[in-house]
Amino acid sequence: MSATGPDPMAGFDTTIHAPNRLRICALLDTADEAEFSTVQTQLNVSASVLSKHVTVLMDAGYVEQRKAVRDTRQRVWLRLTRPGRTAYHAHLTALRAIVGTPAPE
Fold this sequence. Notes:
Layout: H1 14-17, H2 19-29, E1 34-35, H3 36-43, H4 47-59, E2 63-70, E3 73-80, H5 82-99
Antiparallel strand pairs: 1-3, 2-3
């Protein structure tokens, strides 16, 4: 902590910072949850690439998944956990500090 308050760089998170993981968090931050296939389409990545990044985020406790059968098929929905949302927003604050852009009002 500095004389002016907490260091915004303290929120920089290398787990979230990887481009695809950052994009996953950004997408999930705007929705309560999203179906795996929707996230895959939005990011334009293969299922295996998305799965790999989701696993890293799940291992960190940032994302959780819900599985259910819909239309006779197993579906997977993803959502940010509360710690994941907190970490994502702290990471955004750190990125804004790096580039000198204030947070939106």
